[in-house]
TrEMBL record:
Protein name as it appears in the record: Glucosidase 2 subunit beta
Coiled-coil portions: 163-215, 416-443
Gene3D superfamilies: Mannose-6-phosphate receptor binding domain
All copies of domain MRH, residue ranges: 459-554
Organism per entry: Linnemannia gamsii
Length: 582
């Protein structure tokens, strides 16, 4: 029996030894949370963490790198690829690369000085001092976070209430939109019917209306033709004067002003020749158009255009002679030149050269078809033969049953006008309704966070001033760069990631030889909405660092425990997920 019990006793003894090694004698540089993986097996052996080989447990921290991954030297710089655990009692634990051990530098991460253990460099343990300052800063941050979180809760209440209110408004608008749309459709049908009726009426009264228009415009056409005849005669007078000058001027005088005038006249004749050729070519293809009986309005426009062209030619020739008169050598006494100047002087008092028009001759406005008797703008003076013609035609209008030609100003609105006004009003209401629905739908669909807290920030604008520029962002709106003028950096595009702390603004003004400007707004917890810093990590891609209560989320239980100075600190080994200390 005793012999049987000996292996059991030995096994228990080895287990106790192993337990003591695990708890009381962790290899230097190993965190308590990793005690299980830094324990020998029953044979005193230990496996490299990458599983590549097994070595004696006593080979750990022997200042020789046995394992390819360097896991056997957590407390020496032999491998230099692992991480050394600084317990930093009184402050927060930390890890540093093993390559920094005993390098003669007191690493700030190891405030306890444990990274320099070979005695060559003395590093004081300042963890209590650093921990005290750290706790003060943590308390300050906690106070800020607590106040920010209080404000954020108010934001959330506002946002949820606002979203509910917007949803109710949207539903009300959507409920009445069908009736608004139907009203617009009904008024459109009424307008279409009125236009059809008007079209039918116009077709049936076409001859009468044309006759009435003929009577209405006849005196004006006659007056315009008289003006055209006058302009044509003056144009011919100047052509004759310049032709005589060109043929009869004394070429031996070599007067530069005279030569310039003749040269300018030749250019005018050449241009005139081109225009006539173009018109002749055009007229070959429009014989039917020429044979067509033109309306009174078309004849009026033709006469006006021809008068304008004639005046334009007069103005050009007037200027040629005027410049010659001012610059020619008066000592030559050239009869041809003096004759041309005489023509100019006799005509000049009747001509306003700045406007290419005869003095006192105003443009004849063409009245509307239904112009009333009280409209006198186009009426000529009632004197002379022309005045008699005008009066006779106006009086004769009633004899052919066309009294509507000269209706008075008190005539009521037509059926089409009334229908058009009704349709305009109804369609405007429809447009406003659709715009308001779209606007509300956009606001309702906008992602303001899981509890709508960011709705409070809609259209809130914040600025950050630098020496040369002022940067701004209207949240969920537009970001700008201001100097002498405003430059768009983009409009709100989307959230970045799932944490609701980063926004992207895109589609800004394009940079010279670069992309469209854009902004990434990164938010941290604070009691105010303000921009802390602005940078440009890449060309025309800006980064705003901003603080706002909107991201002061509730602290998790783990975060609360971490902030408690009496709770054990947990530090995560690089590359591993956080777990509880053992």
């Amino acid at each position: 029996m005793r012999i049987t019990c000996i292996p059991i006793v030995i096994t228990l003894a080895l287990s106790l030894v192993q337990a003591n090694v695990t708890v009381d004698k962790l290899p230097r540089g190993v965190a308590p949370s990793r005690s299980k993986i830094y324990s020998p097996d029953t044979k005193g052996q230990w496996a490299c963490l990458d599983g590549s080989k097994t070595i004696p447990f006593t080979a750990i921290n022997d200042d020789y790198c046995d394992c390819p991954d360097g896991s056997d030297e957590p407390g020496t710089s032999a491998c230099g690829t692992g991480y050394f655990y600084c317990s930093n009692i009184g402050h927060t634990p930390a890890y540093i690369k093993t390559s920094r051990l005993n390098d003669g530098v007191c690493d700030p991460e190891c405030c306890d000085g444990s990274d320099e253990f070979d005695g060559q460099t003395r590093c004081s343990n300042i963890c209590e001092q650093v921990g005290t300052e750290s706790r003060k800063e943590r308390e300050k941050l906690e106070k800020t976070h607590k106040e920010g979180n209080r404000i954020r809760k108010e934001y959330a209440v506002f946002g949820q209430s606002s979203k509910k209110r917007l949803q109710e408004q949207l539903e009300k608008l959507q409920a009445v939109s069908s009736s608004v749309n139907q009203a617009a459709a009904d008024t459109k049908s009424t307008l279409d019917a009125a236009n059809a009726k008007l079209k039918e009426h116009l077709e049936s009264t076409k001859l009468e209306r044309e006759a009435a228009r003929e009577l209405q415009l006849a005196p004006l056409i006659e007056q315009q033709n008289q003006r055209l005849d006058h302009a044509t005669k003056i144009k011919s007078l100047f052509r004759t004067a310049l032709n005589d000058l060109k043929e009869n001027q004394n070429k031996n005088f070599h007067d530069m002003a005279v030569k310039a005038t003749i040269s300018g006249y030749d250019e005018y004749l050449e241009e005139l020749k081109k225009q006539e050729e173009e018109e002749n070519n055009s007229n070959k293809d429009s014989q039917e158009e020429k044979e067509k009986v033109r309306s009174a309005l078309e004849r009026m426009h033709t006469a006006q255009d021809a008068t304008y062209d004639a005046k334009k030619d007069i103005g050009l020739m007037f200027q040629l002679l005027k410049e010659m008169k001012e610059k020619y050598n008066t000592e030559y006494n050239d009869d041809a030149v003096l004759k041309a100047i005489k023509v100019l002087d006799e005509f000049a008092p009747t001509w306003e050269h700045s406007s290419n028009d005869f003095i006192g001759e105003e443009f004849i406005d063409i009245p509307d078809e239904d112009a009333g008797e009280k409209k006198e703008e186009a009426k000529p003076e009632d004197k002379g033969a022309f005045g008699e013609v005008y009066n006779r035609i106006q009086k004769g209008a009633s004899k052919v049953g066309l009294g509507f030609l000269f209706k008075g100003s008190q005539v009521s609105k037509s059926e089409v006008e009334i229908a058009q006004e009704a349709y305009n009003k109804a369609s405007e209401e429809e447009r406003k309704s659709e715009e308001e629905i779209q606007k509300l739908e956009k606001k309702v669909k906008t992602d303001y966070g899981p509890d709508e807290a960011f709705a409070k920030l809609v259209d809130q604008c914040v600025e950050f001033k630098e020496i040369e520029y002022t940067y701004s962002v209207c949240l969920f709106g537009e970001a700008k760069q201001k100097s002498h003028s405003d430059t768009s950096l983009g409009t709100f595009s989307s959230w970045v990631g799932d944490n609701y702390d980063t926004q992207l603004y895109t589609g800004g003004a394009r940079c010279w030889n670069g992309p469209e400007r854009s902004v990434k707004v990164m938010m941290t917890c604070g009691t105010e909405n303000k921009i802390l810093a602005v940078s440009e990590p890449s060309k025309c891609e800006y980064l705003y660092k901003m603080e706002t209560p909107a991201v002061c989320y509730d602290l998790s239980e783990n975060a609360k425990n971490d902030s408690n100075s009496n709770a054990p600190h947990v530090v995560v080994y690089p590359g591993e997920k956080k777990h509880d200390e053992l």
